[in-house]
Write a structure and sequence with these properties.
mainly alpha; 0% strand; 244 residues; 2 domains; elongated; 10 helices
Length: 244
């Protein structure tokens, strides 16, 4: 009789345990434990996503700096070539008709050479800005358009880059003869049109703005390639981050 009672107790105990187990299982199904925030369409964890985007930006900005820094990087790229300021177009047209086209061409070339010479300086500032990118920034960028990272990057760094870039551009323009070429053009123009009234022009600011516009344009092109062209995803991390 005692053995039967003991067996009954064991059976009851097992049934109770099973009931609690079922209840606990149901509770765990309902209560979701906190997990890492995921970007829609991505299966990567936060660290991988941030690392992937930073790598993409590092590669994109590195390629952009390399392409603009080489000889003719600006001058022979029609998308970013620095042309005459609009304020000087009338003067250039007059000089060209008077046989001074070479001086005009030399001036255009010298502006582009200054940009090419200054472009490498941008790399260190790009790297610094990339390191500061947060996960929230990364989430917005990855879910954005083909140049979302470039636009974000430009909005966050353009002012600082301008302040840091302008002195380099100014020195480069002196080194490659932009200022000299400009003065020669103005002197020739005023000698044949003595009462001309040329508008003042800050060449340093003009060339700096155009150089940065061209640099960011090239960064955008690199970003588009990484987003849309699988062949441009040259590392496993980029394939994981941007692969569909």
């Amino acid at each position: 009789m005692k053995k039967v009672s003991t067996l009954s107790i064991v059976i009851v105990f097992c049934v109770v345990c099973l009931c609690y187990a079922a209840t606990l299982d149901d509770m765990l199904k309902v209560v979701k434990l906190p997990s890492s925030v995921k970007i829609p369409g991505s299966t990567q964890d936060d660290d991988t996503i941030i690392a992937g985007l930073k790598e993409a930006l590092s590669i994109g900005t590195g390629n952009a700096v390399a392409s603009t820094s080489k000889l003719d990087g600006y001058f022979k790229n029609q998308m970013i070539k620095i042309l005459l300021p609009e304020k000087l177009q009338t003067m250039a047209n007059v000089l060209s008709k008077l046989g001074y086209q070479r001086q005009v061409d030399d001036f255009i070339l010298s502006m582009n050479r200054a940009a090419e010479k200054a472009a490498p300086k941008a790399k260190e500032y790009f790297i610094g800005a990339i390191k500061e990118m947060s996960f929230e920034d990364a989430k917005k960028i990855l879910g954005g358009g083909d140049t979302a990272a470039t636009e974000f990057f430009k909005s966050k760094t353009c002012g600082k880059l301008f302040d840091e870039f302008k002195p380099v551009i100014s020195k480069s323009m002196n080194d490659v003869g932009v200022t000299r070429s400009y003065k020669e053009m103005v002197n020739k123009y005023t000698s044949v049109v003595p009462f001309s009234n040329l508008e003042s022009l800050d060449l340093d600011q003009y060339v700096t703005n155009k150089a940065l516009d061209g640099l960011f344009y090239m960064v955008g092109q690199e970003e588009k390639k990484i987003r849309t062209d699988p062949a441009a995803r040259v590392t496993e991390l980029l394939k994981k981050t941007f692969g569909k």
